[in-house]
């Protein structure tokens, strides 16, 4: 199954592939440290890595025209990546939500469509406001990272910290699944690696 779902890398750019692999590993460790050890500080790493991998853009000018260039790592190694679609948008009124955000029984969709899916709905003064995946990732990365940037959320929209943390892990796990990476298997390997390093350090003392 892991091999079947794996993204096909069509570029020979070894540096881009290395950066992508490093970003995925950092994301994987961060999710694991939050999930198993409750180290909430790593949520900012999760948000930042998701933006770097899936939503990184750069504004520039070409012949005096403002152009937005997609610099997402996933696009640098695969010009047409596809990911599993959202099941249903999360409602703000839902007290309990899960990390199971994506429908793995459906065909994966192109990155542009995936980023523009509605992940969260909130009722602001009787009006339903919708938040896209790309806006959620960028806004959360900016907010947690302390960046002062204009909000991309609809007017007065706000997502609770509890929902935000669960959604970050859910998106990360959806990404792992989409690229054919077995998170549970790698988390087990990473935990073993950490324990081995701790044992070596203890013996060294």
TrEMBL record:
Domain of life assignment: Bacteria
Protein name as annotated: Uncharacterized protein
Species of origin: Peribacillus frigoritolerans
Lineage: Bacteria, Bacillati, Bacillota, Bacilli, Bacillales
């Amino acid at each position: 199954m892991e091999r079947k779902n794996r993204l096909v890398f069509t570029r020979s750019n070894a540096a881009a592939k290395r950066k992508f692999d490093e970003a995925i590993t950092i994301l994987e460790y961060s999710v694991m440290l939050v999930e198993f050890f409750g180290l909430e500080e790593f949520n900012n790493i999760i948000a930042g890595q998701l933006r770097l991998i899936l939503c990184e853009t750069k504004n520039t000018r070409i012949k005096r025209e403002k152009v937005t260039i997609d610099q997402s790592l996933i696009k640098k190694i695969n010009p047409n990546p596809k990911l599993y679609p959202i099941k249903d948008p999360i409602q703000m009124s839902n007290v309990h939500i899960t990390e199971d955000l994506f429908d793995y029984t459906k065909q994966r969709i192109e990155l542009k469509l995936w980023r523009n899916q509605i992940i969260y709905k909130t009722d602001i003064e009787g009006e339903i406001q919708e938040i896209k995946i790309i806006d959620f990732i960028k806004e959360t990365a900016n907010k947690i990272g302390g960046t002062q940037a204009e909000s991309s959320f609809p007017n007065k929209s706000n997502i609770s910290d509890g929902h935000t943390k669960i959604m970050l892990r859910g998106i990360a796990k959806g990404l792992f699944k989409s690229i054919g990476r077995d998170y549970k298997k790698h988390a087990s390997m990473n935990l073993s690696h950490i324990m081995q390093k701790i044992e070596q350090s203890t013996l060294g003392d």
